[in-house]
Design a protein that fits this description.
With about 325 residues, the protein is α/β, with parallel strands linked by helices. The chain has helices spanning about 10-20, 45-55, 85-95, 105-110, 115-120, 140-145, 160-170, 175-185, 195, 200-215, 235-245, 300-315; strands at about 1-5, 25-30, 35, 70-75, 100-105, 125-130, 150-155, 225, 245-255, 260-265, 280-285, 290-295.
Length: about 325
């Protein structure tokens, strides 16, 4: 397939870099200020080198990428809340032109799910968004394969930064600020880690899960979620939990009772007590019991594999 990739951050770069290995061709790559466009396929290595050296991927305007020749648009621009722009507008443009869309951007799925599905119904193309929940973990495709109607709830650890902080605090007895600074030095946390530590990122993923599981019976957005982060967690909470054979993880839940995210006590050696940046999602199924899906929940190449798996599904 021919791909137009919007966004040249970690995920967009990785999608462009790995597309050839999956048998696809990148005809456009755009960042916020520029684009590289070629209907015969751009030179991805040169575009990424120019991004590193000059701060741009090419000489074209970003909007030119939407007008390029492509079969699927990969929307990997930063997630925004509320109206989910400009990502939602990019999706609209592609679907109105009957071009497929693959999302890594959580905004349109979490904040405008009903609008997104309406656009898809009116188009001859499809929307996929595996990469919006759990990075490389095949959470949404598993739900699709089993059937949303057979899954009653989902819960899990859905933010690697928060999990790194909590697991390091528990293992080393270190304070929150110290571990957060360490995470930033290692590149595990952003310079502004607010979305991660205040629970917003995990909540967006749980909202997406709730939307998929509800099968259109109800639309969820971030406003419907009960969210508590880890910033105010008392320093001795992990120590006290450890004395009782338990630990604390930031757990997100999506089910009949709605969407909730917050620090929860879990068994110290239990399934949900994943360490480091690892993520896990538990699906409660009607006929197969509890499924545990775990793996790398973030990272450029990891998330790009989910994007490209969706592209492959479009080609089936």
């Amino acid at each position: 397939m021919k791909l137009a990739v919007l966004g040249a951050g970690a995920v967009g770069r990785s999608v462009a870099d790995l597309a050839g290995e999956y048998g696809h061709e990148v005809t456009a790559l755009a960042d916020s200020t520029s684009a590289a466009v070629d209907s015969d396929g751009i030179d991805v290595a040169s575009a990424l080198a120019e991004k590193d050296e000059e701060g741009r991927v090419g000489d074209a305007a970003p909007e030119d990428a939407l007008d390029a020749e492509y079969d699927a648009l990969v929307e990997a621009t930063p997630t925004t809340l509320g109206d989910a722009q400009p990502g939602f507008g990019h999706v609209r443009t592609a679907l109105e032109r009957d071009r497929h869309v693959v999302l890594a951007n959580k905004g349109p799925v979490a904040e405008r799910y009903a609008d997104l599905r309406e656009l898809e119904r009116e188009s001859e193309a499809s929307v996929r968004f595996e990469a919006t929940v759990g990075g490389a973990i095949p959470v949404l495709s598993t739900i699709e394969d089993y059937g949303p109607e057979t899954i009653s709830a989902a819960r899990g650890v859905l933010n690697g930064t928060a999990n790194f902080v909590l697991s390091r605090m528990a293992a080393e007895g270190l304070g929150y600020e110290h571990v957060l600074a360490e995470a930033q030095d290692l590149g595990v946390a952003e310079a502004d880690p607010s979305f991660d530590v205040n629970g917003t990122d995990a909540a967006l993923k749980c909202v997406i899960l709730a939307n998929v599981l509800s099968e259109g019976d109800r639309e969820y957005s971030l406003d419907d979620a009960e969210v508590e982060g880890i910033e105010q967690l008392p320093g001795n909470a992990l120590d006290l939990a450890g004395e009782d054979g338990r630990t604390i993880r930031l757990i997100g839940e999506a089910g009949p009772e709605g969407v909730r995210v917050g620090p929860r006590l879990v068994p110290e050696n239990g399934t949900l007590a994943v360490s480091g940046t690892r993520n896990i999602v538990q699906l409660e199924t009607d006929h197969a019991g509890r499924l545990n899906l775990s793996g790398r929940g973030a990272g450029g190449p990891e998330t790009a594999t989910a994007v490209l798996a969706d592209v492959n599904r479009l080609g089936l």
